[in-house]
Amino acid sequence: MRLHSIDLKKMRINDSFWSKHVNLVSETIIPYQWNAMNDLIPDAEASHCLDNFAIAAGRKSGEFYGAVFQDTDVAKWLEAVGFTLAAKEDKELEKTADEAIDLIAAAQQEDGYLDTYFIIKSPEYKWKNLCEGHELYTAGHMMEAAAAYYQGTGKRKLLDVVEKLGNLLCETFGPEEEKLHGYPGHPEVEVGLIKLYYTTGKKKYLDLAKYFVDVRGVGENYFLNEMKSPDYQNITPELLDYRPEYSQSDRPVREQERAEGHAVRAVYLYSAMAELAYEYQDQELMDACVRIWNNIVKKQMYITGGIGASGILERFTTDYDLPNDCNYSESCASIGLAMFGIRMANITRDASYIDTVERALYNTILAGIALDGKSFFYVNPLEVWPDNCMERTSKEHVKPIRQKWFGVACCPPNIARTLASLGQYVYSAGEGELYVNLFISNQAEIDLGNTAVQVSIETRFPFENEVHITLEGVPAEGMKLAVRIPEYARNYTMSDEVRPPRGGMDCGMPSGYTLSEEVRPPRRDMDYGMPSGDERLSRGGRMDYKTEKGYAVVMLTQDTKLTVSFDAPARFIRANPNVRADCGKTAVTKGPLVYCLEEIDNGKNLAELYVDTKQEIREEDSDLFGGIKELVFQGKRIEETAWDGGELYGEHPLSLSDVTLKAVPYAYWNNRGIGEMSVWMKELVN
Fold it and tell me: CA-CA distance, 400 to 323, in Å (whole number)?
């Protein structure tokens, strides 16, 4: 049996690193994005998203405005609201969301059809442009929103809307002769249908998701044939020269060897493929998922967890093509990569997938939103020189500062829903087994099938590497606990202190269970022997564990407090020499965090700098960004004095001077104003 994510209603995150981001969702991001969708943000790009629904519902007059998939902004916003309400009751927010749902329901047509672009602008073209029309993509996001809102509030209205829509899709698409034999140009409905199946138990939704995956790329390309029809209407000019690999439809999915095409479309498709491979026990489909995953993480992924090297068509290119200053690395793509990764981890119980999920969460996904929750990056480069981020050039997609909103605003609400549902990545659970994936302080009640256990984690990770885990209600027949061993961890140890069951403090959790108030003190300086059996259980000590696919596994039979500790010092990292952009360069990381240089700390022209990797990296406490570790190391700077004449080229010898460099987490760059930024630095060769 596969593992599953836990019930977000029974989890509270209270973490020194993540809480400032998670709390921002309800306090700032959701209200801000509601205002953005209502066009109430001064000097921001217009959304008109909710007006489109009002027009489609007949409550307003006007024309459709925005991208063909504009409806998905409110869908992802509602999904974030659903996850937020699962964590904490908020009657005013729920009332606002219910009003938005009423508007969506009013816009839905009698047969279940729901897409404001085609209802308002092109009703005669419904289902005639699956390549570009995004009707199925929009339906998928509505389904995800409905599942989250139902789980968060217990209210069925949006779920009833999307069931009606899902029924229409089942009647419209399929292998039967009288049905359409197409599939979405932008995969996403597959994920939505699978969630609708998990929520309702109706297998026809799962079967339709399987159909969309199975038929993709089989025989003559559906989209190329669609474009030959007199009923076809081009929507996106840049897709006039359409190539099927762009939408992963150039061949059947089980024959695909590597990640190709539009990065977001790809990882949404792969996420659905993984789930379907499990549900139908399809080994051929799972083999394709493994091949594609390995290609992404070993040959096409940035050190920050970004994917999609090309700004043209936002796509994967060729292996090892990872330019730093003109890449796309869309925030949505890293979110999709995390979605793919957690599904693969839950199916395979392999911690290496979580290593990549963690990389994406701590770097690219967090970088996509400012610390005030009110501006966003769509594109996430690893090197920025603000002066050359110019319109109508190859870098016009690169922004040197986060934007208030976007005309195509898929990333901001996607980040919101991801942060609101962060708990789904922390734990995975199964029948009598609990997997700890991420080191984030929280309290939770977790269903293990025949029993529920109360779990709390206390840690100051990623700046300190000691994790205190308390489990109460451990079943007498025993349970399996698996704690991830990160790829960067050194000297990993687990030690325990077993105590009898007892009551806990009131942590503001849902009624019905209690949580421990005690936090195990650091024990790194104590000498643990290796006692065995009952002696170990009675007095505590270093625990023996078995390593399974990157997890430290122990069997527990009574309430337990244990500490996991490891070393994760800052370190210099180099890229495979086939990554041309990074040859002779180094990056600096600490645990899952990738660090970068910023102009505000290191002066202009970061390209002049060389890093001396033979010198130590100092980790220094800082009050920046709510408290971080800055990394300080030595290097050299090219002296410009020989170039005072202003010539463009000359024979002047290279002259270097000593310099002390300071790096901050990439996730927080540009929170102190516009300036240069670089992740990769030239390495000084002595």
Answer: 17
